[in-house]
Amino acid sequence: MMLSRRAALSVLLAGTALAGCSSPPPKVYTLTVVPGAAVGGRPVTASVAMVDIPKYLDRPQIVRRSGAVELGVEEFERWGEPLANMVQRVLADDLAARLPAGSVVTTSRTLSGDEALTVELALGRFDPDPDGTIVLEAQWRVLRKAGGRPKTETARITRRPADDSTAAEVRAMSDALGELADRIARGMR
Questions:
Q1: Are 30 and 88 in contact (CB under 8 A)?
Q2: How many CB atoms within 10 Å of residue 178?
């Protein structure tokens, strides 16, 4: 029995639709705030005004290095929000947890214009090496409303995930961001 073109096309479309339904649902991840020790001093107001990330990380999918020059993109493992926005939000919360009691840290989306300090952050890397070790390479500066010359600082922080799962990788990324917040908070005193 020979199928008409229309019937063959219908069968093909139905098969394609069924194949699309068999794809696993994506898993969605978010960075989390990591507890840290508070620095001494008076309360401050601050904002994390800018976070710049490499363009290869500016996508919903989680990116991993699979070699010296090769990147892997995980189609079904995604970030819950744009990575730059998530880093900005979590870093603000990490800093608030580390600064003296009564301090307020916001993001650029909620600036009031009254912040005494502004943090600008540029990430050179924030992804795992082929062996799974998380590498966070960052430059930052703290601008003071009262003036003074800002000093640019750098850090290279590595964290080894507890296991090979994506959840452990994201926890290690959160830990690395928490350590970066420790360093920035010390410089904000």
A1: no
A2: 22
Q: Is 183 helix (H, G, I), strand (E, B) or coil?
A: helix
Pairing, β 134-144 against β 27-29: unpaired
| DSSP string for 159-182 | E--SSSSHHHHHHHHHHHHHHHHH
pLDDT of 62-83, one tens digit each?
999 988 889 999 899 999 999 9
Tokens 């070790």, located at residue = 133
**Among 44-53, 86-95, 159-168, which is the least confidently predicted range?**
44-53
Query: Distance between alpha carbon 94 and the CA centroid of its chain, in Å?
Result: 13
Give Cα 80 to chain centroid, integer Å: 10
Q: Comparing C-alpha atoms, which of 110, 121, 58 is closest to residue 88?
A: 121
Query: Which residues sit opposite 45 in a β-bridge?
Result: 104
Three-state secondary-structure class, residue 84: helix
Cβ distance 172 to 160 under 8 Å? yes
Q: How far is CA 84 from the centre of its chain?
A: 6
pLDDT tens-digit series, residues 5-21:
665 556 555 555 555 55
